[in-house]
Amino acid sequence: MAGGWVVAATILGRMVTFAAMLAIGAFCAWRGMVDRACLRTMIAVSTRVFLPAMVFSTICERMDRALLLAQLPMAALAAAFYGVVVWLVRVLADRLRLDAERSAAFRLTFIFGNTGFIGLPILMTVFPGTGVANLVLFMLVDQVVFWTYGASLACGEKGAPDWLTRLKGFLNPNIVAILIALGCVAADVPFCGAAVDFLATIGAAATPLCMVCLGAMCFFSDIVHVLRGRELYVGAAAKMVALPLLAAPLLGALPVAPDVAASMVLMIAMPPTVLVPLTVETNGGDGPYATALSVTAVALAVFTLPLVAGLIGV
Fold it and tell me: Which residues pair with 113 in a beta bridge?
């Protein structure tokens, strides 16, 4: 358990850094250096250029075929997790008596975690050898669920998107980068060192830019209303604390490697992804509410994620 609190302190340091980036983003928005129009462009660059570059270069540098095969149970655990969390968050939304738009935003916020911008740096820090493989396999399942169930939920009364829209979702740069990199790893295709270094340099900007954008989004949203309501605290307590703590002993009893089980717990405890407010707003939902809920939950994760790591003894 003592080792768990050492890891928790390390995670706390990373999360405090992320929180400082959020503050920088809010400051930039307050001073007028970032407006709503350029914010969407910055987020698009971060999610469609920098994040795929970071994921691709990291897979190339830290994974091989043996590691990929050894960590495959993570994909099955991720599928099981989404079956549970979809049900749990729907029950919570019903009990909170949210209207249709806010229910969809609440459910999206607390179903899908920030696997790339926060999850990848955290798992690379905690598990330098296997963290990337665990994250990538989880992320594949996450994207499948997001662009099927998540896309349908975001559309609400407008109805589920057609097959072409869903196909475009699956062919987003992150999924393409993961599939190409994993295909090369599985086939033992050698990578060009200069190209990987170039992508790693670009990808290093992904997390800082994302956190700055989230901070600016926080400034433009009505966080006071969210802080005064119950949804934030109920959702964060259930999904980001209670669920991972309950899952830890269950995962520990399964015939999987300890690092897979611990990585899974940390992925469950991740705060919301930046894609949620963008998806909600794009589909005509309550974008300001989803933004405020997501950003405040990320801020809470500065405390909840290290707490979970310490209690489970990572």
Answer: 272
Q: What is the pTM of this model?
A: 0.89
What span, in angstroms and rounded, lies between the C-alpha atoms of 94 and 91? 5
Cβ atoms < 10 Å from Cβ of 147 = 22
Mean pLDDT of 152-173: 68
- The candidate with the shortest Cα–Cα distance to 138, out of 183, 72, 185, 86, is 72
Give the pair of three-digit tokens for residue 221: 């949203």
Please answer whether residues 148 and 166 qualify as being in contact, where contact means their C-beta atoms are separated by less than 8 angstroms. Answer: yes
Among 288, 268, 264, 269, smallest CA distance to 277 is for 288
CA–centroid distance for 200 within its chain: 20
- For the record, the structure tokens of 208 come out as 């800082």
Q: Which is nearest to 306 in space by CA: 19, 62, 112, 82? A: 19
pLDDT band of 159, cuts 50, 70, 90: low
C-alpha separations of 244 from 62, 126, 208 in Å: 26, 17, 26
Higher-pLDDT residue of 278, 32 = 32
CB 244 within 8 A of CB 268: yes
Residue 97: DSSP 8-state: T
Q: What's the pLDDT tens digit per position in 74-102? A: 999 999 999 999 999 999 999 999 988 89
